[in-house]
């Protein structure tokens, strides 16, 4: 099964997204957004940009 983004409301009433692998494990979490639309836009931005992203050491 393919991974998926889930959009949810956290305990403080903010909206977030998380990326789940095909096995259901959470592999990434997004920041808090004021609106569900904002969280969806954040997830879509990650989706668009992740495929071509490189991996670098940040030290």
TrEMBL record:
Organism: Kribbella deserti
UniProt protein name: YegP family protein
SUPFAM superfamilies linked: YegP-like (SSF160113)
DUF1508 domain residues: 10-57
